[in-house]
């Protein structure tokens, strides 16, 4: 058996919502970056799933083609030694002059396929339609995408039109390229359920195979769904497809952590957004990984099922997890590990595909509205692709290259934190209850050392490192004293960390005005001393600075390029630390941030707002000092991601809104359902501040939008506080 190949692909979806088309290649910037292909080549990719989409080539008329972009890109892929797998329709409904319910769809795509084959007769691998079942569900059954129907008959018509589009396209392509191969993709998981909704689960589990069953000529009168589809008037269509099948040369399995589902008639066990039904029964539909014990068998399960059902070569054609960085890496490692295990069992598994290389936009809204950007192997939030830790991971697959220390941890899908709802047992062999050794097991992995055990930030960083299964050590002053070089050396020699995060230091801004020496000793001299010791050992560091390094006169948000001009002692201590650490050799990440708030710390501004207003009392807040609030959980997760990626230099990390403390208080009150009229907007000098504050120290960034929005932060904060207060009330009762 040939070596397992590594494939890749940028997210290329062009989908239609009403009259609006949305192009992921444009949203990610890939459309305008010629050098992205060179970036992809450095990963060692053998093949790339690449768009030659009907909507992009012939948007206005089927006889009008614009080949300029694909000529340049496809020829460059060829020069770089990466085989293109040409995608012709990716979650799309075709250009404006057709749609998936139209009789013109299948012959129209076939005409486009012929034109592409004639233009690029050297391309041998093709995916005319990506994920036909998934696209039909989202477009015709759920109504999310054009043509926005919600009807089972329209679903089957949409699916059959896509299957005919594949068949006719491959026929047209093979008339030009006789040896062309079909790589047919679809999302594949399994539906589990309680007994009460087993019929729906059985239907879902039969429907999931329909793209491949149809193409393989398996949908005949003996098929489980034959009668159901025929009741919608499609018997002649089914017979025509079965009489002229077009089996894939490779079955492309796209599997996500959301692909396996669990249906439960006990809806009271689940939040409202999971509840739905089929018109006959009501049930909750949630991710099986969040409920079942043991968890679903994941890649191993769906790939083994696929091989046993078809005996056709398989590729994992999308492997991606939109999560924290180490979880992205662990999921990719799981895919690679599963592929090797199955190949050892005799399964003809050809490749694993790293998906969404440059990230994706709006999948949290299912592409129905603007949504969040989700980084891929490269983070393009700043416009210019930034390598994440996925790059060295992919380069090292299949080799003895050193693994990143965070790979010693288990993915969240293998830990107890995966459970979000009451547990439902899943019948399974005993071996599935046992954790097996992983490809990523690194034994005694070195820790991240976090200095600052008594501080809010140090404790929060340790909390999120633990949640992410990142080995870490949280040190107090007794373990690591920033004022004592010997103590620093001893701690570094004892723990031998792979990175150090300095979350220790002086935090009392007003007290610093009267205790300047102590503040400077902790924030400047101690911080530089620790970074020097790390630099001598080649250990990367993370340090934290503040918006108070600026004087507030810029009249715009400050970026990483702006020169500090502090107004107070605390700001000077942080500016001095920045300068001292920047002069050191090695990798040092300096994070400027501002106005912490967290549900886990009772001594921060919005907690005081909630507690005060809940008592019906008035709350005074400064109206003349503008800040950029920063939600500590978001700060911690982003900091850990950047550290894992090997980021360095100054980064501004804050949520995305600049507002006065008084406006901040009003937003908190509104989000918590409290009375904002109890907020008194006052000058800062009336609050007893000793240290001068900048009038507007808002933080912006040239590095990209790597933090979630302030609106999301505030929602998470108020929900967490509400849960905590409800727990307190139950305990008191």
Report on this structure.
The chain is an alpha/beta fold and 733 residues long. It folds into two domains: 328 residues, Alpha-Beta Barrel (TIM Barrel), CATH 3.20.20.80; 285 residues, 3-Layer(aba) Sandwich (Rossmann fold). It is built from 22 helices and 32 strands. Helix 15 packs across helix 20, helix 16 crosses helix 17 and helix 19 packs across helix 21. It is globular, with a radius of gyration of 28 Å. The termini are far apart.
* Main beta-sheet annotation: 8 strands, parallel, barrel
Number of strands: 32
The domain count comes to 2
Q: What is the CATH architecture descriptor of the largest domain?
A: Alpha-Beta Barrel
Topology:
Layout: E1 5-9, E2 14-17, E3 20-23, H1 24-27, H2 36-41, E4 47-51, H3 54-57, H4 68-79, E5 83-87, H5 105-119, E6 125-127, H6 132-141, H7 152-176, E7 181-187, E8 191-193, H8 198-207, H9 210-215, H10 226-230, H11 235-243, E9 250-254, E10 261-264, E11 275-277, E12 282-287, E13 292-293, H12 298-310, E14 314-319, H13 325-344, E15 349-355, E16 360-361, E17 373-374, E18 378-379, E19 386-387, H14 390-396, E20 424-425, E21 448-451, H15 456-467, E22 472-475, H16 485-495, E23 499-502, H17 516-537, E24 541-546, H18 569-582, E25 588-593, E26 596-597, H19 605-614, E27 619-622, E28 626-627, E29 630-631, H20 632-645, E30 649-652, E31 659-660, H21 661-671, E32 679-682, H22 710-732
Parallel strand pairs: 1-4, 1-15, 4-5, 5-6, 6-7, 7-9, 8-10, 9-14, 13-20, 14-15, 21-22, 21-23, 23-24, 24-25, 25-30, 26-29, 27-32
Antiparallel strand pairs: 2-3, 10-12, 11-12, 16-17, 18-19, 28-31
